[in-house]
Write a structure and sequence with these properties.
The protein has about 350 residues and is an alpha/beta fold. It is about 45% helix and about 15% strand. The protein is built from 15 helices and 10 strands. Strands 2-1-3-4-5 form a 5-stranded parallel beta sheet, with helices on both faces. Strands 7-6-8-9-10 form a 5-stranded parallel beta sheet, with helices on both faces. β1, α5 and β2 form a beta-alpha-beta unit. α11 packs across α15. The chain binds 6-O-phosphono-alpha-D-glucopyranose (G6P). 6-O-phosphono-alpha-D-glucopyranose binds next to α5.
C-alpha cells in the first residue's frame, strides 16, 4: 500500500532512506549487555542471509576492538554438523526472529551449555522467547524482503557491543565521535544518487557482477552481491579481494563488471593492486571509496569511482559502503523492472529448514 511507503515508490527505498536516522537515534545510545557476555572470552556469532553477513562484520569488530575469540557460523549448516561446543556465549542475529535454522542453532547451543543472546528486530519473536537475553536492533518494521536498514542496525548493535567490551577509551571516543558524524555522511550519499543510477545503467545488461572487498569490506561485498542477486536477478558474486588470483580473475573480461570496495583503510594499497589486475584484463571496474581513497586513485583506468565522505575511523566504512551497494542494487533492479519489494521466489522470513 502506498500509505506505508509515503512518498517512496518502494518500501525498500524508504527503508534505505531511514538508515541515517537509525544511526542518529541509536548510534550513541548505550546498549545494555548481560554480564555473561561481558565476561565471555569466546563468542559465537550465528545467522542466515544478510544477518549472517552482519554477524561477519561483527566478528571483525569483536576481534579487533574487544579482543575476543569469535567463531562465525552459518545457522543453516551449523546444527547438521553436531559441532563440539565449549562454554561461551552465542549471539544469534536475525531480523525477523523467526528463521528456523537460526532457532535450531540457538537450541543446539543451549543444549550444550551456552548462554544465548538473540539480536532481533521483531520483539516477542520465536527467537526472543528462546534466548536467555534479547537485544533489539530497533530498526523499525522492515517490509522489503531484501534486508537493508535491519542489516545496518545489526552492524551498529554489534559495533556497540564491541565498544562496551573494549578497553581502549581513546579509540572508543574516536568511534563515538565518528558515529555522531555518520548520519550526515550517510545522507550525503543520497545527494549523489544520480551517479549510482548511472552505474546501475552500466550494470543492468551484464550476465554477472563481481564484488570485491578486503578486511571488513569483504562481508560488505558479500552483502552487496546478495542484494544484487536477489533484487535484479543478475548473479552477484562476492570474493575476498585477496582471493582474486585464486580463481575469480578467470571470470574477468570486458563484459563482467567488477565492483571494488576500496576504502582508505590499512588494506587500501593491496586493494588498489587488485584494481590494476582487473583493469589489465579489460575488466570494467566500479570503485566505491571515500574522499581519501579517491585522491589516491586519480589516473587509475577504472570505469567510475563513487566517493562517499571519509569517516573518522575504519570501523564506520561499512555503513557507508553498504548503503552505496544497496542503492546500486535497487537502481539496477529498477532499470530492469523487477519486483523490488517482493523478489520472485523469496520470503521475508524463512520459517522452514
Ligand atoms: C530471508 C530474507 C533475508 C534475511 C534472511 C535471514 O532470506 O529474505 O533478507 O537476511 O532471511 O532472516 P532473519 O530474519 O533471520 O534475519
Amino acid at each position: 500500500d502506498s500509505l506505508g511507503r509515503g512518498e517512496f515508490s518502494h518500501y525498500m527505498l524508504k527503508e534505505m532512506y531511514e538508515q541515517p536516522d537509525i544511526v542518529l537515534k541509536e548510534g550513541t545510545q548505550t546498549l545494555d549487555i548481560p554480564k555473561e557476555l561481558s565476561k565471555a572470552l569466546h563468542i559465537t556469532l550465528i545467522g542466515c542471509g544478510s544477518a549472517f553477513y552482519a554477524a561477519w562484520g561483527g566478528k571483525y569488530y569483536l576481534e579487533q576492538l574487544a579482543n575476543r575469540i569469535v567463531t562465525l557460523e552459518l545457522a543453516s549448516e551449523f546444527h547438521y554438523r553436531n559441532p563440539v561446543v565449549q562454554d561461551g556465549v552465542t549471539i544469534a542475529v536475525s531480523q525477523s526472529g523467526e528463521t528456523a535454522d537460526t532457532l535450531k542453532a540457538i537450541q543446539y547451543m543451549e543444549q550444550h551449555g551456552q548462554y544465548t543472546v538473540g539480536m532481533v528486530n521483531v520483539p516477542h519473536s520465536s527467537i526472543s522467547r528462546q534466548v536467555h537475553y534479547e537485544i533489539l536492533t530497533k530498526a523499525g518494521p522492515e517490509i522489503g524482503v531484501a534486508s537493508t536498514k535491519a542489516f545496518t542496525a545489526q552492524l551498529l548493535c554489534l559495533l556497540k557491543i564491541s565498544m562496551n567490551l573494549m578497553q581502549d577509551s581513546v579509540r572508543k571516543q574516536k568511534i563515538l565521535k565518528g558515529l555522531k558524524q555518520l548520519p550526515l555522511d550517510m545522507q550525503k550519499i543520497f545527494f549523489k544518487v544520480s551517479q549510482l543510477q548511472d552505474i546501475a545503467q552500466h550494470l543492468v545488461h551484464s550476465k554477472g557482477i563481481i564484488f570485491l572487498g578486503r578486511g571488513m569490506s569483504y562481508p560488505v561485498a558479500l552483502e552487496g552481491a546478495l542484494k544484487m542477486s536477489e533484487l535484479s536477478y543478475i548473479p552477484g558474486q562476492g570474493f575476498a579481494a585477496g582471493e582474486l588470483k585464486h580463481g575469480p580473475l578467470a571470470l574477468v573480461d570486458a563484459c563482467t563488471p567488477v565492483v571494488v570496495l576500496a576504502p582508505m583503510d590499512q588494506f587500501f594499497e593491496k586493494t588498489v593492486s587488485n584494481i590494476y589486475e582487473v583493469c589489465a584484463r579489460e575488466g570494467k571496474v566500479f570503485v566505491i571509496t571515500d574522499n581519501a581513497g579517491a585522491e589516491q586513485l586519480a589516473g587509475v583506468p577504472v570505469q567510475d569511482i563513487f566517493v562517499y565522505p571519509s569517516p573518522t575511523t575504519w570501523e564506520l566504512h561499512p555503513f557507508l559502503s553498504v548503503l552505496t551497494l544497496q542503492l546500486i542494487a535497487y537502481y539496477t533492479a529498477l532499470h530492469k523492472g523487477c519486483s523490488i519489494d517482493q523478489p520472485r521466489n523469496l520470503a521475508k522470513a524463512v520459517t522452514v529448514e
